[in-house]
Amino acid sequence: MKELALKYGCNPNQKPSRIFMTEGELPLEVLNGRPGYINFLDALNSWQLVSELKAATGLASAASFKHVSPAGAAVGLPLSDTLKQIYFVGDIDIDDSPIACAYARARGADRMSSYGDFIALSDTCDRATALLIKREVSDGVIAPDYTPEALEILREKRKGTYNVIKIDPAYRPEPIERKQVFGITFEQGRNEIRLDDPALFENIPTANKTFPEEARRDLIIALITLKYTQSNSVCYVKDGQAIGIGAGQQSRIHCTRLAGNKADIWWLRQHPKVMNLPFIEKIRRADRDNTIDVYISDDYDDVLADGIWQQFFTEKPEVLTREEKKAWIAQNTKVALGSDAFFPFGDNIERAHKSGVEFIAQAGGSVRDDHVIATCDKYGIAMTFTGVRLFHH
User: Fold this and answer.
1) Is the peptide bond before 232 cis (omega within 30 degrees of 0)?
2) Following DSSP, what letter does each residue of 105-166 receive, concatenated?
3) Which residues are catalytic?
4) What are 256-292's pLDDT values in tens digits?
5) pTM to 2 decimals?
6) Adjacent-strand bridge partners of 125
7) Hey, is 198 helix, strand or coil?
8) What is the pLDDT of residue 1?
9) Distance from C-alpha of 126 to C-alpha of 362, rounded to nearest angstrom
10) C-alpha gyration radius of the chain
11) CB-CB contact of 137 with 113 (8 Å)
12) How many angstroms separate the CA atoms of 50 and 53, rounded?
């Protein structure tokens, strides 16, 4: 098949719409549903991300994509009991499925942003992964293959309309890519840079020059995630998964704050008060996720006020105070941070430190590199200058 007609483009008024190959056949097959223009943008960008993660780490990888940027990305490391609880996956046996573990992590890190996601899997989708996907609000999934049982489960989702795409993992695009803007064709070489190159850790200007293997892995995950994130962007990673992604901001400090706030929320969800919230029995998953998000925020009264808390809880929870949140966040450590370009000022490091960042990979090259380095040294942060920019638009 050389082309596939789509219902419409980014918006319903943008017709006609299609995807097509100028040479050869499409390297994908729609096994179920009718994916749209944005679905394919998410599917193809997220597939590149997870296939690169798998190649760089050797681990099964997954991504949760929304509007052409990842909401989450992770490799298939086992989940602790705490993560199983805050990701709400404890009732499904995923311990023997690395790809299910990867998706549980990718989806669970930022459940608010992942609502209605498009999923990418580096490995064959198995039964455990399909069961995780089935109960979440999602637009579709792309993977190199599906077990018969997994495909049957996914075909039942959304009354049989769920989008399931199979992609040929051997497909390699041409080295030159093109797109049109306002009738004008842009052309550039594909960004084929390898982000698992040991040379990325050779230029370490900070006093602390120690990067444990886990930190190097997490920084590689951050950089590969940023390669497919709308710029400007930064990515916080811990234990093999992105825990905060800031995308598409005009100012880098805004990226750092946005992603840092997401990382803090991920950590706060592990606070005993949050893990023990007394939810009513039949609360919807989306309502539960939103309630947790509001409870953690400064607007907690929106879910704890008299006459309102009864909609969500069997009894009124205690407030998670600002002092308690600050003390809990201070316990987060060994977080890795990647940036798709240089940090222009030390204020980014100050904000990153507040979210437990101890390892940084960034391009370097700012006129204020000395200030950035000094701020890292102030907190004992190890930072490498990769010399690589990863803008993506």
Assistant:
1) yes
2) HHHHTTHHHHTTEEEEESS-B-HHHHHHHHTS-EEEEEES-B-HHHHHHHHTGGGGT-EEEE
3) 66-67, 232, 393
4) 999 999 999 999 999 999 999 999 999 999 999 999 9
5) 0.96
6) 146
7) helix
8) 83
9) 36
10) 21
11) no
12) 5
